[in-house]
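Trying the structure run again after the queue cleared.
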Amino acid sequence: MDAPPAPASVPPSRRHRPRWFGALMLRLHFYAGILVGPFILVAALSGALYALAPTLEQVVYARELHAPATDDPLTLAAQIEVAEQHAGDEATLSAVRPAPEAGDTTRIMFAQEGLGASESRAVFVDPGTGEIRGDLTVYGTSGALPLRTWISNLHRNLQLGEAGRFYSELAASWLGIVVLAGLALWIIRIRTARAKRDLMRPNPKHTGYRRAFGWHASAGVWVVLGALFLSATGITWSQFAGANVSNLRASLDWGTPQLTTALDGANAPVDEHAGHHGTVSAPTGAANPATFDAVLAIAQRTNVDTGLVEIAPPAAPGSAWVVRGIKTSYPTEVDSVAIDGTTMQVVDRVNFAEFSLPAKLARWGVDLHMGVMFGLANQIVLFVIAVAIAGMVVLGYVMWGKRRPPRSTRRFGGALPAPGLLRDAPWWGLAVVAAVGTAVGLWLPLVGWTLVGFVLVDIVAGLVSRRSA
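Done. Tokens:
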């Protein structure tokens, strides 16, 4: 009997084709993790601190923010007059935030020379006695006090001004990509792993590289959704990618509804990011303190029915007074109303309930990212996610170091991913990768520029590896 024919040898290109996608994800995850990891690490650690900033603010500035409760508060006019006498003639009244609850202070804000962009001088008044409880510089329409402002700037730009924003955009843009590539690798690994539980929680019996990998993989899969959320919402604050997001929202009519403040019918734009870095409009002249009580009463009868309220006099001649809710915790109450200060008639109103779904999601996304939507619980979750992201970056470097060959003379870092695997990818796979890479690079410019750098590093590393072989 004739022997059965020997099986035809499978060409290497066909044998390795199923691995090309995993090889791509590995190289992307590796190079982004190693080269962008420091930026993500700093953003995560500063973000963890920023997550707790609202609570820290309440503790550090307890005297300024709180006062003995009273059942018979002074009128806003009386409190404003006390604050104006304290602030002096060089300060111009810009806004008033009445005490939201019994036991809180009223915040009287002024525009003044010497303040930075989006900064105001806030005088804190005891609504029961008129005592001045504090005098601080506050930032943005969120009214962040100095500690939270410092932490915010550290997270946003490393205290380097506009130039420092490149770091945070790079971190936010690459974080989502690194997480998605890691998730793809996790799915590939768990499909073939014998002990699938080890990819869901670290195995205490493992040591060395396997132990670091177990912590890295299991922590990553549990925080993947939170990390993607922080990446997506962080991008909306960035310079280049943020502008693309704003343009897309405008083209799809997903923007935040605008309140008409100009008495000639012009619209003043509203920015849901204002709580983080919004510009504070300064009035052009003195406002009658008595008008604040009257305007607030009209707004409360119209649509602003929350205790967290800001009253702003006209920012320019021919403009209306603006009263808006500033309660960004859930349920969100950011209704606003514009009132003609001469006739005391309502000029326009905007209700949050009437926002489009995309506009509401944008508002909620900002508030969740800032840790104010669900109070302390929101802040703790953000803190845990940020610490986990920082831990995964550190573990990534540990894993790289432990992959160093035993006889290697390399002082730092382990082996690079094996070269050449992508050469076996099908033509359509390479075409899809090129198309997706181009689209992502155009949408996230800093990703596009650094991706080119990654390719160059990979080419150079491959050449060096072949010469030393």
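The radius of gyration is 28 Å. Worth checking whether this holds up in the mutant runs.
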